[in-house]
């Protein structure tokens, strides 16, 4: 969302106080993730740029985690039942 809103990765990287290569790594590589402090800066900046879309994105993420947790719990319950 931020890159789309601002058009340039350089602007986003500058606003987040990170290098363009770090931002590219977060966006393009599945194995690189921002630190907790960087996530906080991203969220604060995203809120300033587009609060409505930030809420929508966070809501989607919470739903994804909720489904993953439910699946994990079901699998755990099935494993426990199989041990009995």
Structure description:
The chain has 2 domains: 1-49, no CATH class; 51-84. The protein is built from 5 helices and no strands. Helix 2 crosses helix 3 (20-28) and helix 4 (36-49) packs across helix 5 (51-83). The protein has helices at 2-6, 9-16, 20-28, 36-49, 51-83. The protein is 82% helix and 0% strand. The model has no long low-confidence stretch (mean pLDDT 83). It is an all-alpha fold and 84 residues long. The protein is elongated and about 55 Å long.
Q: Based on Cα principal axes, name the global outline.
A: elongated
Describe the largest sheet. Answer: none
The count of DSSP E runs of length 2 or more, i.e. the number of strands, is: 0
Q: Could you tell me the mean pLDDT? A: 83
Number of domains: 2
* DSSP helix fraction: over 70%
Distance between the termini: 48 Å
Query: What is the gyration radius calculated from CA atoms?
Result: 17 Å
**Helix/strand/pairing category:** mainly alpha
Low-confidence stretches: none
List the helices and strands in order.
HHHHH
Portion in strands: under 5%
């Amino acid at each position: 969302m931020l890159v789309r809103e601002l058009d340039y990765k350089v602007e986003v990287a500058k606003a987040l106080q990170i290098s363009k290569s770090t931002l590219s790594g977060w966006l393009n590589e599945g194995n690189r993730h921002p630190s907790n402090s960087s996530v906080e800066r991203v969220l604060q900046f995203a809120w300033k740029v587009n609060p409505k879309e930030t809420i929508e994105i966070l809501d989607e993420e919470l739903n994804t985690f909720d489904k993953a947790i439910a699946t994990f719990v079901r699998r755990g319950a099935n494993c426990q039942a199989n041990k009995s």
